[in-house]
Design goal:
The structure is a homodimer of 213-residue chains. With 213 residues, the first copy, chain A, is of the alpha/beta class. In chain A, 52% of the residues lie in helices and 14% in strands. The mean pLDDT of chain A is 86. Chain A binds a DNA duplex (30 and 30 nucleotides) through helix 7 and helix 9.
Chain lengths: 213, 213
DNA sequence: AAAAATCTACTGGTTTACCAGTATTTTATT
DNA sequence: AATAAAATACTGGTAAACCAGTAGATTTTT
């Protein structure tokens, strides 16, 4: 239908040949999409991009040489007109966050449907974002689970926890709340006991993780 | 088209009458959706739910009496067949996270399009998740921005930071890495300087916030 | 081969956090 | 009014973190 020059140029990077072939055959029938390149290693892609233009990179996260996150960062910095759509087997939230923070405009699980893939490519090509239903679900469930089993904190405890997380010391907190530092220390101890933390570091980690703040 | 009993029963909770009217008129034309209730306060909704069945609650987050997050939690716990779709003006990530963690199956910004709203109601009614494009975009951009201006950490620093965040003390880290505690302390100091933290608490906070780990 | 960055380790001192137990006062809950 | 929960504050001690400066050894980059 469309002229060759108007087609969306897609590059595929994945170390599983089966996945590459699957994606290729899925996209072969599409009039406005053209797979212009595919490879198994991240380095190969970076090499290819030096001499050729690509609109969309379908990028596996778990590559043998460099990790997908670094490639994403590099592509995003060097090529303003090339957008990355991340691909992975599991929807691990930390990875998704890192991908997004490094400029990935879309993200799909490998079991995404054909229509999701097509929609992702089209949306991202037009400058929008796209996260597959499975990714959204994974994000939601991960959030849901990491937040389960949340201990109940009192009003004062929450208040003090916030101040601890913000980096204030016991003495400063006491000053701010017009109470004795010894009281703050007691609250601190109770907080650690409630969330089962052995020191400030894990207290803060858990507070953020379970969004107790 | 569909019988009255098969329509999706929607309740609207928002303290801006204009928004309520807007939503109502948007949904009035839909054959398979029926707005069965609307109110301005969260308490009113909870009262209504005691005597009536509702499939979907369109819930504003910034309510005058109780906050939306608590209502969401309550509805989710008490009524297994009632699903909540959050509504808010801004896509603040912390709020979205809290909503999801309290069982909201969908989330939209108030400037969502008609088709987004309809799709959200239908998907959530069928047990799926739905987050509007604007929400996804807001999430992505918030993540992107909170992660901007990230200091570069060395391999060793990252390794030690991970162990600190996981709650290990300097001595334990030294043991684990077969180096002197004094070295670990130096790394610790350098880490704090790099991310501009004055103590462990803020170091951990920043590490998680900027996903340096 | 030289320069820069990273990792390593030290001295010597101050501050803050952590542990355990107790106990009074204030605020909700029944 | 009675009970429970939360907030307050203490003693006395140990452990860990924080601060500043220095500096040799190793690895990476130029």
């Amino acid at each position: 239908m469309a002229l060759s020059t108007l087609k969306i140029r897609v590059a595929i990077v994945d170390d599983h040949p089966l996945v590459v072939e699957g994606l290729k055959s899925l996209l072969r029938g599409k009039a406005d999409i053209k797979v212009v390149y595919s490879c198994e290693r991240g380095e190969d892609l970076l090499q290819y991009l030096k001499s050729s233009d690509v609109d969309i990179v379908l990028l596996d996260i778990n590559l043998p040489d460099i990790n997908g996150i670094d490639i994403c960062k590099h592509v995003n910095r060097e090529y303003q007109n090339t957008f990355v759509i991340g691909l992975s087997t599991y929807g691990e939230r930390s990875i998704i966050n890192q991908m997004i923070s490094n400029g990935a405009k879309g993200y799909l699980l490998k079991n995404a449907t054909e229509s999701e893939l097509i929609e992702a490519i089209n949306k991202v090509y037009r400058g929008k974002y796209y996260y597959g239903t499975e990714i959204q679900k994974a994000m939601a469930s991960t959030i849901f689970h990491t937040l389960g089993n949340t201990p109940r904190l009192t009003k004062r405890e929450k208040q003090i926890l916030k101040l601890i997380v913000s980096g204030k010391t016991t003495n400063k907190i006491a000053d701010e709340l017009f109470i004795s530092p010894l009281t703050v220390e007691t609250h601190r101890r109770n907080l650690m006991k409630k969330v089962d933390a052995s020191n400030t570091a894990s207290l803060v980690k858990i507070a953020i993780e379970k969004s107790l703040i």
